[in-house]
């Protein structure tokens, strides 16, 4: 029997957090279905999307959760975090306030999840180089001091989107195997 018949299956819950309008929903739709929406959706609907990836010949299902806009009211619930094994903490490189919120999001994550959660700091909208408000070095530096992975992405032009989610998925996989 090949490894694919061994019946092993992994389901990883990953949450995407960060201030309103940093691009969380678009990162997810770009990754899960290669779609991008220029307008901020008055989001409702799907709580999560499931993406299947193969790591070391094993099928992994990444169940990626989107806030559906509750973050606007600072009311992301504990149900959102429950069982998460990975998190993308997203800010917008063209809006410094969203970067300054990262520490608050990390605190919230830490109160709901244990420290073993794989955490990636994501500076999104790197296509907006001409109105950049947070340097790559600043992002790296915060990530280093907090012990996070770091990457800049663009949900608009697809830069590093797949890579960002796959860093999280591989790190989770390494944590458990
Ligand atoms: P959320 O509130 O964090 O889920 O953010 P959304 O995904 O709804 O995106 C907010 C706005 O930013 C929308 O108008 C998107 O079109 C835009 N946006 C999202 N990602 C990017 C990106 O990578 N580059 C640019 N230029 N705009 C983006
Ligand atoms: Mg959203």
Automatic annotation (TrEMBL):
<keyword id="KW-0342">GTP-binding</keyword>
<keyword id="KW-0547">Nucleotide-binding</keyword>
<comment type="similarity">
    <text>Belongs to the small GTPase superfamily. Rab family.</text>
</comment>
<keyword id="KW-0636">Prenylation</keyword>
<keyword id="KW-0449">Lipoprotein</keyword>
<dbReference type="GO" id="GO:0012505">
    <property type="term" value="C:endomembrane system"/>
</dbReference>
<dbReference type="GO" id="GO:0005525">
    <property type="term" value="F:GTP binding"/>
</dbReference>
<dbReference type="GO" id="GO:0003924">
    <property type="term" value="F:GTPase activity"/>
</dbReference>
<protein>
    <submittedName>
        <fullName>Uncharacterized protein</fullName>
    </submittedName>
</protein>
<keyword id="KW-0472">Membrane</keyword>
């Amino acid at each position: 029997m090949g490894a694919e018949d061994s019946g092993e299956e992994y389901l990883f819950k990953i949450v995407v957090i960060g201030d309103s309008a940093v691009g969380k929903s678009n990162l997810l739709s770009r990754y899960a279905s290669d779609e991008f929406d220029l307008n901020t959706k008055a989001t409702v609907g799907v709580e999560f999307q499931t993406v299947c990836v193969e790591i070391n010949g094993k099928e992994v299902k990444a169940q990626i959760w989107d806030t559906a806009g509750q973050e606007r009211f600072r009311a992301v619930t504990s149900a959102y975090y429950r069982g998460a094994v990975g998190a993308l903490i997203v800010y917008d490189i063209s809006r410094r306030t969203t970067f300054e919120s990262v520490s608050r999001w990390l605190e919230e994550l830490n109160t709901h999840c244990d420290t073993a959660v794989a955490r990636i700091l994501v500076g999104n909208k790197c296509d907006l180089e001409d109105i950049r408000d947070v340097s790559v070095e600043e992002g790296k530096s915060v990530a280093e001091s907090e012990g996070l992975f770091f990457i800049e992405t663009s949900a608009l032009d697809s830069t590093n989107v797949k890579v960002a989610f796959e860093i999280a998925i591989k790190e989770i996989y390494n944590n458990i195997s």
